[in-house]
Amino acid sequence: MNEFTGRTVIITGAAGNLGRATADAFARRGARLALVDLDLDALRSAQEAIPEGSDSAVFATDLMDPSAVSKMADGIKARFGGIHVLANIAGGFAMGPALHETTDAQWDHMMDLNARTVFNCCRAVVPALLETGGGRIINVSARAANRGSGHMAPYCASKAAVITLTESLSEELKHRRINVNCIMPGTIDTPQNRAAMPDGDFDSWVPLDALADVILFLASDAARGVTGAAVPVYGRS
Predict the structure, then answer these.
(1) How far apart are CA 55 and CA 73, in angstroms?
(2) Cα-based distances in Å from 88 to 20, 85, 204
(3) Closest listed residue to residue 154, CA positions, set 105, 120, 196
(4) pTM for this entry
(5) Catalytic site residues?
(6) Strand order in the sheet with 56-60
(7) Domain locations along the chain
(8) Which CATH code for domain 8-227?
């Protein structure tokens, strides 16, 4: 199937585990890929890993810098023309101290990494989606957004902000042919998580390709009636 042939897909966090899996899945369905991450060498490695013959380009960008994100969006338009899908996969996790011992820097880092990057990218890319005549935005929240956990307050709050941002943006854009949704992964099966939790039940964790499949669904015409949703993807975790 080449259902995304002729469509340009922006993938942020493209050098990470989920970014790579998502890029591979979109490439196999004919999409043109704009791969975005901070580290240029890591981006080039990710680009080399996608199926041969795919139309792709890399854009090393600090997603916490609004001017850099704006420049990125302009560069993608210049390279590919119209933009059709924005997959906001960039983000991160960190445990921390108790909330009363959390520093401003620790709080700001999680909010910037998980919420501000989504805000910056949506603000920069939505005008291009409107010019194209519509499109899809898929954000990544987390199961932890549903309930606060000890020593994770900044992370939980930042992922909850992603859900609220998704809902608000969906309300603004639902009559302009732009669908905005997010996924909420459970524990993802990555090498880093296996190293951090060696006694975990790996078979119950969410495979990367399963998450990528949900992102592709939300970007597809099959999900044309879905907007403003926060989709749980927990596997059996």
Answers:
(1) 17
(2) 13, 10, 25
(3) 105
(4) 0.96
(5) 155
(6) 56-60, 32-37, 8-12, 85-88, 135-140, 178-185, 230-233
(7) 8-227
(8) 3.40.50.720
The neighbour count for residue 195, using CB atoms within 10 Å, is 8
For the chain, the straight-line distance linking the first and the last C-alpha, in angstroms and rounded, comes to 31
Per-residue pLDDT of the chain (237 residues; tens, 9 = 90+): 689 999 999 999 999 999 999 999 999 999 999 999 999 999 999 999 999 999 999 999 999 999 999 999 999 999 999 999 999 999 998 888 999 999 999 999 999 999 999 999 999 999 999 999 999 999 999 999 988 888 889 999 999 999 999 999 999 999 999 999 999 999 888 888 889 889 888 889 999 999 999 999 999 999 999 999 999 999 887
How far apart are alpha carbons 134 and 130 in whole angstroms?
6
C-alpha to C-alpha distances, 77 to 7, 12, 57, 93, nearest whole angstrom: 12, 15, 12, 31
